[in-house]
């Protein structure tokens, strides 16, 4: 009798173990990613909405079963814009067996290039510095580089300047590798024939008063300022220029200054910081679509933000879009690898990244052109869109374009 009871217990236990195993199989695989980002440091105004875009789209992927029964996990850690913290975060993520990595700053991306190469892990950074791609095979820029953006703005200035002689331009840069990234390429473009007069290059500090700088610009006849930095210092500069009556009311207005900015130096968040100083005629370029353009991309982004409890400011922020887009690309590589029956590994995802071109380019709805990568070209969206602020919103000017001179100086 005891033997019979023992046998029944073994059968029951075996059934429970089999049931547990079957449940795990039915639950699918879990794919892990990591994101180290600045949410409390000097560029937290960028990092915070970016991290929310990543977080929300990962939730959406799982809630809508975009990967079937498989799950996506993204570990998100604050690094305070400190490279040494980013490195520790990355090492911790490796212990979690991540197959894809989202880095943030230019400085840390460059510092960790060799680590990424040794780990052979595909990386999408928030930094668009073209130099990130040098000496590394695994870093991919989501959109057109800072050089493409700054040179593209300079080309627009040269083509649309109505005064006599070359337009006089100043560069307003973040005091870091991020800020300096396009500086030399602007100079090279001028040497190659770009018709602007680069009067001054300024690396801004933490000053709350730019009066001396702005008056110096005025005394040198500066007509255009191109910013490659984040929104707070641009907002400070614009408010100072407004108080001095220097901001051009129309593009290229004589005796005034027309202000322009690259991706992180503009967008709706800039208007929130600068108020009326950025409400009208601030020119800005990025490869991301703005929420003023009606279409499925805008509708989807607003719906995503509402679904996960984000306010309107986050929903309209270009860096929320940025965070969504990098997860979209990662998920698309996983989806493509799964469709081919591949085991999801770093190597498999890298193969899908470099094959994402031609007819296989990825249309994300968040960018003004397709996302396209190859082994020879790891700069994602090649085209830019010029925007201008009107009534506190950014609207498209013309069609998406690619920088002519960046191609010439490569």
Short recap of the structure:
This protein is an alpha/beta fold and 410 residues long. Helix content is 45%, strand content 16%. It has two domains: 28-144 and 294-377, Response regulator (Rossmann fold, 3-Layer(aba) Sandwich); 149-286 and 386-409, Response regulator (Rossmann fold), CATH 3.40.50.
**Helicity, in percent?**
40-55%
What is the count of structural domains? 2
CATH class assignment of the largest domain: Alpha Beta
Radius of gyration: 24 Å
Class computed from helices, strands and strand pairing: alpha/beta
Query: Order of strands in the sheet with the most strands?
Result: 6-5-7-8-9-11-12
| Biggest sheet overview | 7 strands, mixed
Distance between the termini: 85 Å
Query: Could you please say which CATH topology of the largest domain applies here?
Result: Rossmann fold
Unreliably modeled segments:
1-25
Number of helices: 16
Give me the CATH architecture of the largest domain, please. Answer: 3-Layer(aba) Sandwich
CATH superfamily of the largest domain: Response regulator
What is the overall shape? globular
Order of helices and strands: HEHEHEHHEHEHHEHEHEHEHHHHEEEH
Q: Which oligomerization state do the chains in this entry correspond to?
A: single chain
**Strand-residue proportion:** 15-25%
Mean pLDDT over all positions: 93
């Amino acid at each position: 009798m005891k033997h019979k009871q023992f046998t029944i217990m073994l059968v029951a236990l075996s059934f429970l173990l089999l049931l547990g195993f079957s449940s795990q199989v039915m639950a699918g695989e879990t794919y892990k990613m990591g994101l180290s980002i600045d949410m409390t440091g000097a560029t937290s105004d960028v990092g915070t909405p970016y991290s929310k875009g990543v977080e929300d789209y990962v939730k959406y992927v799982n809630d809508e079963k975009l990967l079937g029964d498989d799950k996506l996990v993204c570990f998100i850690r604050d690094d305070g814009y400190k490279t040494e913290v980013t490195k520790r975060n990355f090492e911790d993520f490796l212990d979690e067996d991540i197959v894809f990595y989202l880095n943030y700053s230019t400085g840390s991306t460059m510092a960790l290039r060799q680590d990424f190469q040794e780990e052979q892990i595909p990386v999408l950074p928030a930094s668009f510095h073209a130099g990130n791609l040098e000496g590394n095979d695994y870093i991919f820029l989501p959109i057109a580089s800072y050089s493409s953006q700054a040179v593209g703005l300079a080309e627009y200035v040269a083509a649309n300047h109505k005064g006599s002689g070359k337009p006089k331009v100043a560069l307003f840069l973040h005091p870091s590798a991020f800020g300096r990234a396009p500086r030399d390429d602007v100079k090279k473009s001028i040497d190659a024939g770009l018709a602007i007069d680069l009067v001054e290059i300024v690396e801004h500090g933490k000053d709350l008063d730019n009066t001396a700088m702005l008056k110096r610009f005025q005394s040198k006849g500066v007509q255009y300022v191109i910013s490659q930095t984040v929104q707070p210092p641009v907002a400070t500069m614009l408010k100072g220029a407004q108080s001095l009556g220097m901001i051009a009311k129309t593009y290229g207005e004589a005796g005034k200054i027309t202000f322009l900015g690259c991706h992180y130096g503009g967008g709706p968040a800039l208007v929130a910081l600068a108020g009326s100083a950025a409400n009208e005629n601030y020119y800005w370029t990025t490869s991301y679509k703005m929420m003023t353009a009606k279409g499925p991309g805008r509708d989807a982004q607003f719906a995503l933000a509402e679904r996960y409890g984000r306010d309107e400011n986050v929903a309209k922020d270009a860096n929320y879009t940025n965070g969504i887009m990098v997860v979209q690309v990662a998920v698309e590589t996983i989806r493509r690898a799964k469709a081919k029956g591949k085991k999801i590994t770093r190597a498999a995802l890298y193969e899908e990244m470099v094959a994402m071109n031609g007819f296989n380019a990825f249309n994300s709805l968040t960018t003004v052109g397709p996302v396209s990568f190859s082994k020879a070209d790891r700069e994602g969206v090649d085209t830019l869109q010029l925007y201008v602020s009107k009534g506190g919103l950014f609207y498209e000017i013309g069609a998406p374009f690619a920088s002519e001179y960046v191609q010439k100086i490569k």
